[in-house]
Design a protein that fits this description.
Blueprint lengths: L12 E4 L9 H16 L3 E6 L9 H13 L9 E2 L4 H13 L3 E4 L3 H13 L25 E4 L6 E6 L3 E6 L7 E3 L7 H11 L4 E5 L3 H18 L6 E5 L2 E2 L15 H6 L5 H10 L12 H7 L10 E2 L2 H14 L2 H12 L5 H11 L6 H8 L12 H6 L2 H15 L6 H14 L4 H13 L7 H20 L2
Parallel strand pairs: 1-2, 2-3, 9-10, 11-12
Antiparallel strand pairs: 4-5, 5-8, 6-7
Helix pairs in contact: 1-9, 3-5, 5-6, 8-10, 11-12, 11-13, 15-16, 15-17, 15-18, 16-18, 17-18
Amino acid sequence: MASDSGQDRGKVVTRFAPSPTGYLHLGGARTALFNWLFARHHGGKALLRIEDTDHKRSTQDAIDKILEGLDWLGLDYDQPPVFQSQRADRHREVALALLEAGHAYKCFATTEELEAMRAEQRANKQPQRYDGRWRDRDPADAPDGTPFVVRLKTPIEGETVIKDAVQGEVRVANAEIDDYVLLRADGTPTYMLAVVVDDHDMGCTHIIRGDDHLNNAFRQLPIIKAMDQIEGGWPEPVYAHAPLIHGQDGAKLSKRHGAVGVEAYRDELGVLPEALFNYLIRLGWGHGDKEEFTRQEAIELFDLDGVGKSASRFDLKKLLNLNGHHIREADDERLARLVAPEIGVGTDIALLAKAMPVLKMRAKDTHELAEGAAFLFKQRPLEMSEKASSLLDDEGRQRLKLVSERLKSENSWTIEALEATTKALSEELELGLGKLAQPMRAALTGTTTSPGIFDVLVLLGREESLARIDAQAA
Ligand code: GLU
């Protein structure tokens, strides 16, 4: 395993360590983002570890979805992902080193025995935890061949203190930390052991994750301290446990609120990756009252000082507002390519890109862009919405005829010229401009909502515009 070489010493190394038992949901994506930003801000390394030791619940589909989600958010990693399941030998090696040095011990207690122990603790209203019955016992007491697990000998006296970069100083009495299992009876390493060994071997200097892991840190730290005593070179990482994300109602994030995969934000809500990126960093981190961040700004400004201590609330409306902002900032050609598949095969990208400046003024998501652009690619005769048809009554159609005649004599097909001509006509007819624009919009787009009517004329071009108007004119 490539642990940090001499030249990397002192460099920040972070890791994102998802368990591939489901999608990359918002909480996971935010943890990934914080780790990535912290590494990039400090010119360090961002690493990825897939914690796939739970064979029953880990799936290849989930791994693929997580990798795809990270890639979509633009999070790149400095090494290929580490797969925890492939490192069991190394985890075992550390457990045996702890055993040999007396920091761990063999426990021969049977399942029935432990169950009886817990039942008694329950009955006495005591906390249910392993009581250390094999901690100081001679393993020779167990008959040959008795199965055993390896447990960590955690300190009993004193307390463990973690100076968490988010939570501040947190203390736990060592008596509360149980002698938990490192190696199961079949020799397989436990998750708690695997995490610590991998973090060490990957050279992680900062462990940034959700505060649901804070309790684990108190169990993980004794392994680090013991290994440091045994072989040195096991520094304590800096922990940063970020508060969880809650739903709008303050309850834990439910599926309805956003505990779905990030791809659902792209596919169902039409969210741009930079908008979700921006939204997620603001969910628990802040820099003054600045709301909008480009990727580069986020890298420049992100640090753990700005991560708040209280839980943040997911707010869909805010996400969509930010999305609208990022859509307006986005490159037109890129947006055109993004929404083209939704409009249909063979969509003219150049025309779509030309339409983007007007379309994106009103859109909050990519689906709205696609809807707004649909008129450009409709075939004549245009299908009319019910509302559009109602505008094309006799009066509407007669007005279109007058508009058509006037526009045919228009030499310059620009917004300014078309606007001046149409306005002049409306004044001559003593009609509000809307009385001409409404039937025009219906004829040109088949709908009653569209970008400004003169933008529509210019985007469709002279020939197509006149053909659509004439198709509906009296
Ligand atoms: N695999 C754990 C999870 O997905 C994270 C472990 C860690 O960050 O230490 O919740």
